[in-house]
């Protein structure tokens, strides 16, 4: 089970920190991902992280602004969102990919998918 939190309304240029608390599997033995879906658009893969914080990958659209991290002792995944733009408005999801190297945006390529947390960037 995956449960996201930390979303909200923020002004352009602002920051948020999203959390994803996990249960039901060995979190420390799982690659994890963040994805988002903006209103009226398809799902976009954002980032993935390896078993610890040493291996991370990002989509070009968020590279340099978003930072993925994890706390294996707390079974929790994070996504730090900085310098937010209006186009970052979306529902944000954490997910457990079937393939470690996946950058897929298809739900069927993930073993588990959270219910999402809404991020709205507006002045």
Please outline the helices and strands:
Blueprint: E1 2-5, E2 8-10, E3 16-22, E4 32-37, E5 43-49, E6 56-58, E7 66-71, E8 76-81, E9 90-97, E10 110-113, E11 117-121
Parallel strand pairs: 2-11
Antiparallel strand pairs: 1-3, 3-8, 4-5, 4-9, 5-6, 7-8, 9-10, 9-11
Q: How many helical elements?
A: 0
Distance between the termini: 34 Å
- Measured as a percent range, the helix fraction is under 10%
Order of helical and strand elements: EEEEEEEEEEE
Mean pLDDT: 96
Q: Report the sheet-strand fraction.
A: over 45%
Low-confidence stretches: none
What overall geometry do the principal axes of the alpha carbons give?
Answer: globular
* Biggest sheet layout: 7 strands, mixed
Oligomeric organization of the protein chains: single chain
Work out the number of β strands.
11
Alpha-beta classification: mainly beta
* Whole-angstrom Rg: 13 Å
Question: Please, could you describe this protein's structure?
Answer:
The protein has 123 residues and is an all-beta fold. Helices cover 0% and strands 48% of the residues. It contains no helices and eleven strands. The strands form two sheets. Strands 2, 4, 5, 6, 9, 10 and 11 form a seven-stranded mixed sheet that branches. Strands 1-3-8-7 form a four-stranded antiparallel sheet, with no helix packed on it. It is globular. The mean pLDDT is 96.
